[in-house]
Design a protein that fits this description.
Layout: H1 4-24, E1 25-32, E2 50-54, E3 63-68, H2 77-84, E4 97-101, E5 118-122, H3 147-160, E6 168-174, H4 176-183, H5 185-191, E7 197-203, H6 218-230, H7 238-241, H8 252-255, E8 263-268, H9 272-279, H10 291-295, H11 302-318, E9 330-335, H12 346-349, H13 362-370, E10 377-379
Parallel strand pairs: 3-5, 3-6, 6-7, 7-8, 8-9, 9-10
Antiparallel strand pairs: 1-2, 1-4, 2-5
Length: 395
């Protein structure tokens, strides 16, 4: 049994640990955009869209970070029905607070370049990266495919709340929201004054059109169904649509060269979501031989690691159209970690043990690029060379 003195020291340790964690993150309440319902800008179930906002202060009062949450996609009515009554399809099911950390933090120590900005996290409830706009509502499913309307309604609301006077603005997002920041980048730029410095940031949003471990084009067909179901074509790049099908224009590699607004990509070359859902989805791994490898990259066999190295090369090839001749308006931080989304949590955004590339944290790379203190276009060496990675281990 532990002594009374030992108990006291354990309590002190736990309090100190929890205090540290509390300073690294804090909760922000949920704002429901009820005025959007009249415009038909609603979640899958017809409920109002919602976002979390921590208002800017001091020198950052006219600076805006608008960040769109991720959460995958639904590609048909059956699939969308499974999420309609969850937080990914209804604001009625969302938690009323969200933890702000990393790029959202309001302390300079944790977020030196954006801590005093207006920081907004838009909740994801449409299932198509905020691109859908179908007028008709199926009377049987009562599903609303209105993501593009949510995007417009949120931007309009923020403009009315002061973003119309923005000096600086960033459209950002993680995962499916990172895809939003790519697909909607120029559209966002067009909504703001010409005098506003506008840039876009995609965290883990560069999904590639790769075949599965058994050579199937799984994600290509899935994306084509998403675009068809949600009526997404009307918000995709016209320049891309002139060359290929709408489903293919949902892939960043096919349309990123048409983006005119400055943009920064943060992505793991071994993106854990892509490995689990594009490279080795369940339909391509029916016997589950990739299960342990997908949960923990250190459990991959040498043969599986060879496949992952091939995927990395395919990912880097897909990036070819992005670099744009090393243009300073384009930035990228492509590390060799097994992870997915690295801006919204303190440990990967900015901490003493955060991932580094060129001896630079993600926070510094993004800040230097946004404020034009330095350019940043770096690609990591192959796994397992990077010892600064925070590789994800899934249950």
């Amino acid at each position: 049994m532990m002594s009374e003195r030992g108990d006291r020291w354990l309590c002190i340790f736990l309090v100190c640990t929890l205090s540290l964690l509390c300073t690294e993150a804090y909760d922000v309440g949920l704002t429901f955009l009820n005025s959007a319902v009249a415009k038909g800008a609603v979640c899958l179930d017809g409920s109002a869209p919602a976002y979390h906002i921590d208002k800017g202060f001091g020198a950052g009062i006219d600076n805006w970070l608008v960040f769109f949450e991720g959460g995958g996609w639904c590609n048909n009515a059956t699939n969308c029905l499974t999420r309609r009554d969850t937080r990914l399809g209804s604001s009625k099911k969302m938690l009323t607070t969200e933890t702000f950390s990393g790029m959202f933090h309001n302390k300079a120590k944790y977020n030196p370049d954006f801590y005093d900005w207006n920081r907004i996290k838009v909740r994801y409830c449409d299932g198509a990266s905020f691109t859908g706009d179908v007028e008709a509502v199926d009377p049987n499913t009562k599903l609303y495919y209105r993501g593009a309307r949510i995007f417009r309604a949120v931007v309009d609301d923020l403009l009315a709340k002061g973003m119309k006077n923005a000096k600086n603005a960033i459209l950002a997002g993680c995962s499916a929201g990172g895809l939003t920041s790519i697909l909607q980048c120029d559209n966002f730029r067009s909504q703001l004054p010409a005098t506003t410095k506008v840039k876009c940031l995609s965290d883990a949003g560069f999904f590639i059109n790769a075949k599965t471990i058994i050579g199937q084009s799984h994600i290509e067909g899935f994306y084509a169904d998403v675009v068809r179901t949600h009526g997404s074509a009307k918000v995709l790049s016209p320049a891309c649509l002139a060359k290929m099908s709408p489903g293919l224009c949902f892939f960043p590699q096919n349309m990123v060269q048409f983006i005119k607004t400055p943009i920064f990509l943060i992505n793991a070359a071994y993106d854990s979501w892509q490995v689990k859902n594009i490279l080795a989805p369940g339909v391509a791994d029916r016997k589950g031989t990739w299960r342990e490898c997908k949960l923990d990259i250190t459990k991959c066999s040498s043969a599986q690691l060879n496949v992952l190295q091939g995927y990395r090369l395919e990912f880097l090839k897909a990036l070819n159209g992005f670099g744009n001749g090393n243009s300073p308006s384009r930035g990228m931080f492509i590390n060799s970690c097994y992870s997915h989304c690295q801006t919204g949590i303190q440990e990967t955004w900015l901490r003493n043990d955060s991932p580094l590339l060129g001896n630079t944290t993600i926070a510094k790379a993004v800040g230097d690029w946004y404020y034009e203190r330095n350019t940043f276009q770096k690609i990591d060496c192959a796994y397992p060379c990077d010892k600064t990675c925070h590789n994800r281990v899934f249950e």
